[in-house]
Amino acid sequence: MSGTTLEQFSYDNKIVKYFGVATIAWGIVGMLVGILAATQLFLPEANLGNPYTTFGRIRPLHTNAVIFAFVGNAIFAGIYYSMPRLLKTPMWSKALSWFHFWGWQLIILLAAITLPLGLTSSKEYAELEWPIDILIAVVWVAFGANMIGALIKRREKHMYVAIWFYLASFITVAVLHIFNSLALPVSFFKSYSAYAGVQDALVQWWYGHNAVAFFLTTPFLGLMYYYLPKAANRPVYSYKLSIIHFWSLIFLYIWAGPHHLLYTALPEWAQILGVVFSVMLIAPSWGGMVNGLLTLRGAWDKVRVDPVLKFMVVAVTAYGMATFEGPLLSLKNVNAIAHYTDWIVAHVHIGGLGWNGFFTFAMLYWLWPKMWKTNLYSTKLATTHFWMGTIGIIFYALPMYVAALTQSLMWKEFSDAGRLVYPNFLETVVQIVPMYMLRAFGGVLYLSGVFLMVYNMFKTASQGTFVPEEADEAPALVPHKEEKGEFWHRAWERKPIFFTVLATIAILIGGAIEIIPTILVKSNVPTISSVEPYTPLELQGRDLYISHGCVGCHSQMIRPFRSETERYGEYSKAGEFVYDRPFLWGSKRTGPDLHRVGGKYPDSWHYHHMVDPRSMSPGSLMPPYPWLATNMMSHNDVPAKIRTLQKLGVPYAEGYDQHANADLDAQADQIVANLQSAGVEVLPQSEIVALIAYLQRLGTDIKKTTASNP
């Protein structure tokens, strides 16, 4: 417009470069740890003979590194590049940008240190202890403040669709993280969840499902709406479809968490809500996929030659596959087959490797030449990376589907005489070992492609010149009054604070309706009078069990199926978990369920099973834990644990913390005597004594009505 004064400004490419490099570096670390974990499932000796690299401890390290380090840094790189250009303004504060970068890397480093040491809250995707949780909240709020500050001083009147998804992701992750992480500290690296049992399970999977939704999905949909049209040089297929996609997705997603807890002790009404909203999610999820793929109309000839578009097409297709599979798995008849099997592992990795991984690669391949003002060093290498990654995903996922089918059929098969055909859980494990080998090979192939990308990007940067500050100009935003007849959503897009408030309301409704009644209405968790708090030694053993990540392989939830009650015993009741902080129902059975293991075997069996699992269970894939017999356990923190649990409502007697250790010693002495009678010599302070105490307690609070199979 003539007479309009253009303002000069620049975009900060340096912060994008740093987040991009961090994405690749942490991605390699996370995937290497994942391959080590995958290898341990068919070669237990790969735990390297120490407690810090056993499967139970490195599995959460792998998930945290891939989700928050690899994918997280990719999200931030993508947002710090796209958002200023969409708003025609730099980010609000460079200082906040760099605080965000270094703060996030510190969080990842602390996770890499604490998780192998066994300092964990045990909550899926939220294992980090309370001081790190606080740091996450501070850094995340700094990131959000930087975004909202940029929105307020923007030069572009309307907010483009990508920014809607960025805002919703920021708000929802903040809400999820804070509420799920509420805990009472015992010490600097030990706390107990504010929720127990059934309530803890619901809050955790409200968080866990929506961490996938609002950390692994909605930010990447925002990135898709920016980078896919840019790479294809085509406009978004349908802006109206993006409006429907956005609002329906963020409203529906938040309700779906309970589908992770079907056939458990969760109230039936909450399970039904989870199923209904999960099925409804197909529509908005596929709306986003269709909008992405149809954006390529007229550009499919480019897909044949452009590796960036190749990665994007497979990424969006993998998103569509994963978001069809999720609702499918939420159907109760399908869930009855799939839950606790490797189907869940395959499902997660279709989304993780295909959607998040491939879109990250596409974005980085597109960004690097732009920021270094050059061309990609080798299209052929990038295409090779694409095919290695694609074949790697196939080698990863297909064996897991075969393993899942094998597991489910063998677990549930009965003979004509009405007995389990495979009563020993290990009979299933032995059958799927070849599938685990193929899965690990797929991971190696996928990671090998990443190394090709590193070389390609290094050579791309070497041949170009990095532009740390990219200059631009635009007129200042003129205050704009609402026009008569203006499309309602256009009016919302001019009001970032109002828009953010509406998005917050949309995501709070579902969570509030599911969680508040479960916590406040006592009838949701019927109590059982025989259920008592853990003894001090059992409490120590439970914390040790959590520290070693045993929940990564063993569930503690017997579902009301004949096949499970025949194998394990009486199905689990909600009232049995009222003192479990955190709950330990698990999400995968690499080993058998343990909820009724108490009293099933003598103390000496548990001792030998931990020191050398194959001596008790031939063919077991469980690594040996010989250090449990020699490591001494300090019980000085028991009084503090008792006091903390009392504050959370656990009915220990007043002043019990003063003589809790006396009860602990008496129970430890009894276990030591039992072991001595079986020819095993251990000290009462050894870790294995506490662990045996906990295992022998499991499931003994109610009378068993179905005998467990040996």
Automatic annotation (TrEMBL):
Supply the alphabetized keyword list: Cell membrane, Copper, Electron transport, Heme, Iron, Membrane, Metal-binding, Respiratory chain, Translocase, Transmembrane, Transmembrane helix, Transport
Involved pathway(s):
Energy metabolism; oxidative phosphorylation
The EC number of this protein is: 7.1.1.9
In this chain the Cytochrome c domain maps to: 536-699
Membrane topology reported for the UniProt record: Multi-pass membrane protein
The reply to whether Cell membrane figures as a keyword in the UniProt entry is: yes
Q: Where is the Cytochrome oxidase subunit I profile domain?
A: 14-460
Query: Per the record's keyword annotation, is Lipoprotein included, yes or no?
Result: no
Q: What family is this?
A: Belongs to the heme-copper respiratory oxidase family.
Instruction: Check the record and name the PANTHER family matching this protein.
Output: CYTOCHROME C OXIDASE SUBUNIT 1 (PTHR10422), CYTOCHROME C OXIDASE SUBUNIT 1 HOMOLOG, BACTEROID (PTHR10422:SF29)
What this protein is called in its record is cytochrome-c oxidase
What organism does this protein naturally occur in?
Belliella alkalica
